[in-house]
Structure to design on (74 residues):
């Protein structure tokens, strides 16, 4: 279950960033984190805290639930 949630979150963050045509640097800045931490999120390399998930949701201006929805093309 943990890996599935991690994969969903990474895919959603990548998708949202690409839809907005943002660089990873821009997404990291808007989410209040370093670029390296942001890259680790997209790369499924980090176990995120609720605080970090909230920062990402705020940065992308989405409900945190959106970060865990299964992509339609899955």
């Amino acid at each position: 279950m943990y890996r599935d949630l991690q994969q969903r979150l990474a895919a959603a963050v990548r998708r949202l960033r690409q839809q907005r045509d943002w660089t990873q640097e821009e997404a990291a800045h808007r989410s209040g984190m370093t670029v390296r931490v942001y890259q680790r999120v997209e790369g499924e390399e980090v176990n995120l805290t609720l605080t970090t998930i909230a920062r990402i949701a705020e940065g992308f201006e989405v409900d945190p639930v959106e970060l865990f929805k299964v992509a339609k093309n899955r």
In short: The helical segments are 2-20, 24-31, 35-42, 50-60. The chain has a mean pLDDT of 93. The chain is about 60% helix and 0% strand.
